[in-house]
Design a protein that fits this description.
Elements (H helix, E strand, L loop, with lengths): L8 E5 L3 H13 L3 E5 L2 H11 L3 E5 L7 H11 L4 E5 L4 H9 L4 E4 L4 H20 L3 E4 L2 E4 L4 E4 L2 E2 L4 H11 L6 E2 H9 L6 H15 L4 E4 L3 E4 L6
Parallel strand pairs: 1-2, 1-3, 3-4, 4-5
Antiparallel strand pairs: 6-7, 7-8, 8-9, 10-12, 11-12
Helix pairs in contact: 6-7, 6-8
């Protein structure tokens, strides 16, 4: 995003011509700048050319699965990705979110809801760029600007969802965050299965050290605030 006076650029990757045109018209009416693509190849080409502020991505593309597009974009950029798909299975939503999508909107959808989700994605991106703290606890360093995590100087490889979860915990270092708030922040849903959260906390404990994460009984989890070594 080049400045407050400039409209945000939204890349629309949708193969259905009628829906593509309707989305473009809706975004223009909302004061955004849409860039339209109808294939994965075209979408990635326009992504490189326009550097959009947000990507609205259909999973059912004719030349390539949308999940692969999520992976390719996320490998090179932190640009918010909102998935738009008729695939309503929970496993598909989880897979898309785990690969790095920021939100998932199921077809058919309401225009107001879609625009609200796009605005939320754009706000999140602006906030992330404007204030990207470095959190240190013990020998663990979480650099939210570089999107890196290290312990004892060694890089720790995390999946997108693991990274999102540790960042949420780091922003409230030493204080417990409720299960509900973590599910809302990381999975965009208070109704997501708490088992997802338990699994990811277990994975973080393995990668960061069990002593860094603590359960708060009846509440949620906290990242322990430890003195520097």
């Amino acid at each position: 995003m080049t400045g407050e006076a400039d409209p945000a650029t939204v890349l629309v990757v949708e193969d259905d011509p009628s829906l593509n045109a309707a989305l473009v018209a809706t975004l223009k009416a909302a004061g955004l700048r849409p860039v339209a693509a109808r294939t994965a190849a075209e979408g990635l080409r326009w992504f490189n050319h326009y550097a959009p502020d947000l990507v609205l991505l259909d999973l059912g593309l004719p030349d390539r699965d949308g999940l692969a597009v999520i992976q390719e974009i996320r490998a090179r950029s932190l640009t918010p990705i909102v998935v738009l798909s008729a695939r309503g299975a929970e496993t598909m939503k989880v897979q898309a979110l785990d690969l790095g999508a920021d939100d998932y909107v199921q077809k058919p959808f309401g225009v107001d809801e879609l625009l609200a989700r796009l605005r939320a994605g754009l706000r999140h991106a602006v906030q992330a760029r404007g204030s990207a703290p470095v959190v240190r606890t013990g020998d663990l360093v979480i650099d939210m600007g570089l999107r890196t995590v290290s312990r004892g100087g060694a890089a720790v490889k995390l999946s997108p969802k693991e990274y999102d979860l540790v960042c949420e915990l780091a922003l409230s270092l030493g204080r417990p965050i409720s299960h509900r708030d973590l599910l809302q922040a990381v999975w965009r849903s208070e109704r997501a299965d708490i088992q997802y959260l338990r699994v990811y906390i277990g994975q973080l404990r393995q990668k960061l050290g069990a002593e860094m994460l603590e359960s708060a009984p009846g509440v949620g989890y906290r990242l322990i605030d430890r003195p520097a070594p």
